[in-house]
């Protein structure tokens, strides 16, 4: 009789599955919560590929929170004595802090006092410097005015302009000054006399007179034409100007009166340059028109 025997092996082993290939999620990392810009919504949205239910995620987060609480409690228990000693060491610190505060406030007051003194001294020095500059300016103006007065008097003496109150007989020096106006210079040696025998005016002397007058004008511009002293000298300056212009007109008439044509033209141009030096171009044109008439 034939017997059939079945193998003792269990065929269900072919259906066993290897659990290592399943997509089990990795535990949450603690460093994920330490980012300075941690945002819960962004963190949850980054867990879409964990293949984990919401309830499992809650359980894992609760477990992580409990672990952190336990670590914190252990840390406090381990350093409990240090915490107690820290509290004891802070007792009485208010008085020390108050003492430091009082010292700082006192230092601030001292600094403010010193700063105020320095500022006051700075203003005082600035005022003294301004006063020094003002005095120096006034001293320079005084020197210019003295120079102005001396040059006016000198020019009046050279032009023989005398006040009626001080008019007197001319001295030898004044006579020499008057004769100097007609004295011959090296440049004018050929024109010492006109064809009719009249002595010619020295152009060198006239040039010096014009230069001295222009220098007076420059001093007045530097000091200020509205200065009381300069205003008081205006009549004297007007006389000097009219006298110089009269001498220039006479020299221009002498230059065009006769003589050699070349030298006459040269003297005429020299006189016109003196008009230009004084800024009296209009007077020069008027003098030339009168000569043509």
Poorly predicted ranges: 1-16, 164-179, 181-191
Strand content: under 5%
Terminus-to-terminus distance = 181 Å
Estimated radius of gyration = 57 Å
What is the number of helices? 10
Please describe the biggest sheet, giving its number of strands, its sense, and whether it closes into a barrel.
Answer: none
Mean pLDDT: 77
Order of helices and strands: HHHHHHHHHH
Structural class per helix/strand content? mainly alpha
Measured as a percent range, the helix fraction is 55-70%
Note the overall shape. Answer: elongated
Q: Based on DSSP secondary structure assignment, what is the total number of beta strands?
A: 0
Biased composition (Low complexity): 1-10
Membrane topology: Peripheral membrane protein
Keywords: Coiled coil, Golgi apparatus, Membrane, Protein transport, Transport
InterPro entries: COG2, COG_su2_N
In words, what does this structure look like?
It is a single chain. The chain is an all-alpha fold and 293 residues long. The protein contains ten helices and no strands. Among the domains are: 53-82; 142-164 and 201-292. The chain is 67% helix and 0% strand. It is elongated and about 135 Å long. Residues 1-16, 164-179 and 181-191 have low confidence and may be disordered.
Features of this protein?
single chain, 293 residues, mainly alpha, 10 helices, elongated, disordered N terminus
């Amino acid at each position: 009789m034939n017997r059939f025997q079945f193998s003792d092996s269990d065929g269900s082993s072919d259906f066993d599955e290897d659990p290592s290939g399943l997509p089990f999620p990795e535990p949450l990392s603690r460093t994920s919560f330490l980012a300075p810009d941690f945002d819960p919504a962004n963190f949850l949205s980054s867990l879409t590929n964990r293949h984990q239910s919401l309830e499992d995620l809650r359980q894992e987060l609760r477990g992580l929170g409990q672990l952190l609480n336990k670590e914190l409690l252990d840390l406090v228990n381990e350093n409990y004595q240090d915490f107690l000693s820290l509290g004891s060491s802070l007792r009485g610190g208010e008085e020390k802090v108050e003492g430091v505060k009082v010292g700082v406030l006192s230092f601030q007051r001292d600094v403010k006092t010193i700063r105020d003194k320095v500022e006051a001294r700075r203003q005082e020095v600035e005022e003294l410097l301004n006063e020094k500059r003002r005095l120096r300016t006034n001293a320079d103006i005084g020197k210019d005015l003295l120079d102005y007065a001396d040059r006016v008097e000198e020019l009046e003496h050279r032009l023989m302009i005398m006040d009626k109150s001080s008019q007197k007989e001319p001295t030898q020096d004044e006579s020499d000054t008057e004769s100097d106006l007609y004295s011959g210079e090296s440049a004018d040696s050929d024109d010492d006399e006109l064809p009719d025998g009249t002595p010619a005016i020295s152009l060198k002397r006239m040039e010096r007179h014009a230069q001295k007058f222009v220098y007076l004008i420059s001093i007045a511009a530097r000091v200020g034409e509205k200065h009381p002293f300069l205003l008081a000298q205006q009549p004297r300056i007007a006389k000097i100007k009219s006298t110089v212009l009269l001498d220039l007109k006479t020299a221009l008439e002498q230059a065009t009166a006769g003589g050699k044509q070349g030298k006459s033209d040269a003297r005429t141009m020299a006189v016109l340059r003196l008009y230009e030096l004084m800024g009296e171009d209009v007077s020069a044109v008027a003098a030339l028109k009168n000569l043509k008439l």
